[in-house]
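[Meeting: bench + compute handoff]

Bench side (C.D.) handed over the final construct sequence. Compute side (W.E.) agreed to return the predicted structure before the next meeting so the bench team could plan truncations. Sequence as handed over:
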Amino acid sequence: MNDIYKSIGSRAEGLYKDKGSRFIALAYPVETEEEVKEIVAGLRKEYHDARHHCYAFRLGADGAKYRSSDDGEPSGSAGRPILGQIDSAGLSDILIVVIRYFGGILLGVPGLIKAYKSAAADAIASAEIIEKVAARTYRLSYDYLDMNAVMKVIKDLSLPQSAQDFGTRCTLTLRVRLSLEPEFLSRLTPIPSAELLPEP
């Protein structure tokens, strides 16, 4: 199973100008729709004098969550071309917002599609492309007596761990890459006290 996918490492900017209109493209690494909402709301405030704030995002290792918004531009002339650039670059966990300052001359739908596409492409071209590993977070609980068995599984699979609490009952948080998930779950089964807790 392929659990590696591409995203961007940090915020990146792009720009396109046509007939006096300026299209400022801002690309952000994001992982949740909440982050998307916060960033878009923040940019609406920061660039409150702009005519349009069009955007598209794609989330997750499989890119299954996505959305695009034309924000008042003709249907399909802004959000979809931005999303198209994200997809042609094969990226996920990314948001691109293109902010338009109107220059007084209408560009027509073909002109708008070209402008939003070009601005988004420019932001992607200036971004640092990174590889991400798709993983699921687990909280594992087990008896102190089973510590050695649990630690062997963690060590063998090189699982990053955090939030450890070693009492009579131990808990820790693990990030398990998707390709290792079946092996991780099957190796926990024989450990009598091992129990997976829901994430808080």
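W.E. noted at the follow-up: The chain has five helices and eleven strands. C.D. will use this when planning the next construct.
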